[in-house]
User: Which sequence fits this backbone?
C-alpha cells in the first residue's frame, strides 16, 4: 500500500490558552484507530519543504505532507502545526518565547482526540527541535519519546544565540529572511517592499541594531526579538526560561526514549552533546547521541563546505537505510513496542573526521575522509583531557613553557577577521557553514585580499606543532585557557582549532582546515551575570569554550591553534570601548596581548584517544 492510499488529512485550528488558534494538519492511517501520534511543530510552513528532508537516493527534498503520509502509512497519526504567528497560524510571532505553552496545549489537545491511542512522540529539525525541549521542560504527561535533531538549546546564551558573551549574527539573516515570509508581510505590500529593499550585506555592518534602525524595521515583531536578544548580554531570567535553557529543567524532562542528533559543523553541536551528557545520566531513556560531519541537517551528503568526508559520511546506508526509516524504526521500537531494527545500537555514535588521502575531488573539495565510532559515553571514557601549550615562536607543544613570553597585535574593529566556515546555519548570503581552507576568496564576506591566508594577517596569531610523527585522534569537548590583556576597556579573544594538511600537487600551499572555534568577550572575565569593564593592560585568565569535535590528525599533518579578536560575521564585532551591547559606540583600535609562560600557561585542552580506533 502506498502512502497516498494509507492516509487521509484532516485540518484543525487548535485553540491555545489565550484564545489564539494554531493551524494544524493531521494525517491519519487508513482503517480504525486509535493510533500513536507524532507531533511536529514548525515555523517554516506545515505544508512546505525543508532542505534537510532528503535522502542519498532521492536528493530532492520531500514536502512535509509527503513525509507525514509515509509515517501515516506506517501506522502513525502525524500532526503538523504552524507555530504562532507563522504561515496560517494566528497570533504574534516572538522567536522561541511562546513554544512551551503552545506545545503543552497542543499535546493536551492531541491526547484528547479519539484517534490518539494516548502515546505521543515529538520530532523535528532545527526550530522543530527547539520546540521539543521547550515542551519537555514542562514535564508533560503523555509524552512517550523524542527525536531531537539539530536543536533544543541546552543554553542559548552559551551557544546558539550568544557565545562567550558575543552575539551570533545568524539571527540577523534569519530575521530578514523570515520576516519576508511572514503572514503580515504577505498582507502588506508596503511592508513587503521595505523588507525586500533591505540589503543585509550593508546592514550586517551596523552594530548594534536598534528599534527603528535595522533591516527589519518594517516588521516590528522580528525587530523586537533581534534587539532584545542582542541587548540582553548578561545571563539572567530572560535566558533561563525553558525555551532557551534546557540545562535548568533536565529534572522535569519525562524519562522517555530520546535521540539527540547534530553535527560537527552545526551551531547546535554543543547543545546536542550537553543535552545527551546530562540526560543520559539522569534518565533511563534510553538516550542516544548521533554526531555526523555535516552542516545543518545535511546528513545525506558527504561534504561540508570545501571538504569531503567520503562515502562513509552519510547517515543513509551507514547508520540506517535513510532518515525516515531511522526515525520510524525508533518510534516503532520505543513508542509501539515492536521488534523493529535498532539502528543506534550504542548510546553514542560519532563520525571521526580524517584519515583520507587529502586529494582534490572532482568537485574541487579536499578528501579528508573519516569513519564512525560507537561508544558508551560523551566524551568517550577512554578519551583523556590533554593540554597543549602555546609557546614562543608560534609553537604548539605538549610540554609546558618554562620561560615567559607574549605576542601582541592590533585589533581594529573596522577590519575584522572574516568568517570562513564553521558551525553556522541560516547565515546566507553572508556566510556558509562547514570546513574550508582558511584563505580569503572573492566570495568571502568582508574579504579585502582574496587569496590571502588568514594566518598571514597581523592580527591572527598562529601556534602549530611540527609535522606529526603519528596519528593523533581528538574526540570530545574543546576548551582553551588563555592569559590575556588589552589596551582597551573591553575586547574579544577568539580561538580556532585546525588540521593543517601538508602541501601536495593538488594543494601546493597545503590546506588549513577549520575544525572548531570559540569566542570570549573580556568584560565577562568574572562571569556572565554582570559585565565588568576591564582595566587596561591588566592580565586576565579566561576560558574560551569551543564547539566539540572528533578528528584524526594524520601523521605528517600539523595540529594548529589560531588566536585573534574577531570572527565576523559569525559574531558581532567588539568596539573595544566597554559599551553595553545595546549601545552604539565609535570603535577604537586595541592593542591585545596573549601571555604564556610558567606562571601563565596559555593553551588548549583536547580529549585524546589513547590509540587510533574506529
Assistant:
Amino acid at each position: 500500500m502506498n502512502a497516498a492510499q494509507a492516509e487521509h488529512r484532516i485540518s484543525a485550528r487548535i485553540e491555545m490558552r489565550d484564545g489564539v488558534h494554531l493551524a494544524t494538519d493531521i494525517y491519519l492511517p487508513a482503517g480504525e484507530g486509535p493510533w500513536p501520534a507524532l507531533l511536529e511543530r514548525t515555523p517554516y510552513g506545515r505544508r512546505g519543504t525543508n532542505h534537510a528532508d532528503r535522502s542519498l537516493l532521492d536528493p530532492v527534498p520531500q514536502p512535509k505532507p509527503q513525509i507525514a503520509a509515509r509515517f501515516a502509512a506506517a501506522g502513525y497519526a502525524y500532526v503538523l502545526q504552524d507555530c504562532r504567528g507563522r504561515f496560517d497560524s494566528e497570533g504574534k510571532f516572538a522567536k522561541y518565547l511562546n513554544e512551551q505553552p503552545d506545545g503543552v496545549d497542543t499535546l493536551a489537545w492531541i491526547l484528547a482526540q479519539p484517534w490518539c491511542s494516548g502515546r505521543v512522540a515529538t520530532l523535528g529539525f532545527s526550530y522543530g527541535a527547539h520546540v521539543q525541549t521547550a515542551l519537555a521542560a514542562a514535564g508533560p504527561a503523555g509524552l512517550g519519546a523524542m527525536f531531537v535533531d539539530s536543536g533544543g538549546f541546552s543554553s542559548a546564551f552559551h551557544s546558539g544565540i550568544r557565545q562567550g558573551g558575543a552575539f551570533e549574527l545568524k539571527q540577523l539573516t534569519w530575521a530578514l529572511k523570515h520576516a519576508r515570509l511572514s503572514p503580515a508581510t504577505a498582507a502588506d505590500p508596503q511592508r513587503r517592499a521595505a523588507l525586500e529593499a533591505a540589503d543585509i550585506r550593508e546592514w550586517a555592518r551596523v552594530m548594534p541594531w536598534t528599534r527603528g534602525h535595522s533591516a527589519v524595521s518594517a516588521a516590528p515583531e522580528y525587530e523586537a526579538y533581534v534587539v532584545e536578544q542582542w541587548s540582553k548580554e548578561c545571563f539572567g531570567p530572560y535566558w533561563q526560561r525553558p525555551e532557551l535553557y534546557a540545562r535548568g529543567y533536565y529534572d522535569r524532562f519525562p524519562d522517555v526514549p530520546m535521540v539527540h542528533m547534530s553535527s560537527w559543523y552545526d551551531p547546535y553541536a554543543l547543545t546536542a552533546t550537553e543535552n545527551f551528557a546530562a540526560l543520559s545520566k539522569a534518565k533511563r531513556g534510553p538516550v542516544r547521541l548521533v554526531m555526523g560531519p555535516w552542516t545543518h541537517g545535511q546528513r545525506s551528503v558527504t561534504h561540508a563546505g570545501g571538504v569531503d568526508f567520503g562515502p562513509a559520511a552519510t547517515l543513509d546506508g551507514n547508520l540506517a537505510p535513510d532518515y525516515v526509516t531511522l526515525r520510524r524504526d525508533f518510534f516503532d521500537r520505543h513508542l509501539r513496542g515492536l521488534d523493529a531494527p535498532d539502528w543506534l545500537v550504542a548510546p553514542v555514535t560519532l563520525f571521526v573526521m580524517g584519515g583520507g588521502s587529502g586529494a582534490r575531488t572532482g568537485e574541487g573539495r579536499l578528501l579528508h575522509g573519516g569513519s564512525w565510532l560507537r561508544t558508551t559515553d560523551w566524551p568517550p571514557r577512554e578519551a583523556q583531557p590533554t593540554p597543549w601549550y602555546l609557546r614562543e615562536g608560534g609553537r604548539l607543544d605538549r610540554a609546558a613553557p618554562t620561560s615567559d613570553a607574549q605576542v601582541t597585535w592590533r585589533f581594529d574593529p573596522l577590519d575584522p577577521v572574516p568568517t570562513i566556515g564553521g558551525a553556522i546555519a541560516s547565515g546566507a548570503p553572508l556566510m556558509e557553514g562547514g570546513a574550508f581552507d582558511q584563505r580569503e576568496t572573492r566570495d568571502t564576506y568582508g574579504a579585502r585580499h582574496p587569496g590571502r591566508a588568514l594566518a598571514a594577517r597581523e592580527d591572527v596569531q598562529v601556534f602549530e606543532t611540527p609535522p606529526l610523527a603519528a596519528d593523533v585522534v581528538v574526540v570530545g569537548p574543546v576548551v582553551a585557557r588563555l592569559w590575556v590583556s588589552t589596551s582597551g576597556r573591553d575586547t574579544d579573544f577568539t580561538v580556532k582549532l585546525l588540521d593543517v594538511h601538508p602541501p601536495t600537487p593538488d594543494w601546493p600551499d597545503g590546506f588549513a582546515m577549520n575544525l572548531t572555534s570559540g569566542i570570549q568577550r573580556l568584560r565577562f572575565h568574572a562571569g556572565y551575570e554582570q559585565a565588568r569593564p576591564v582595566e587596561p593592560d591588566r592580565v586576565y585568565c579566561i576560558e574560551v569554550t569551543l564547539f566539540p569535535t572528533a578528528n584524526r590528525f594524520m601523521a605528517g599533518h600539523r595540529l594548529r591553534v589560531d588566536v585573534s579578536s574577531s570572527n565576523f560575521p559569525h559574531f558581532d564585532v567588539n568596539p573595544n570601548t566597554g559599551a553595553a551591547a545595546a549601545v552604539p559606540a565609535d570603535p577604537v583600535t586595541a592593542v591585545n596581548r596573549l601571555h604564556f609562560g610558567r606562571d601563565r600557561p596559555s593553551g588548549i585542552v583536547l580529549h585524546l584517544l589513547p590509540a587510533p580506533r574506529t
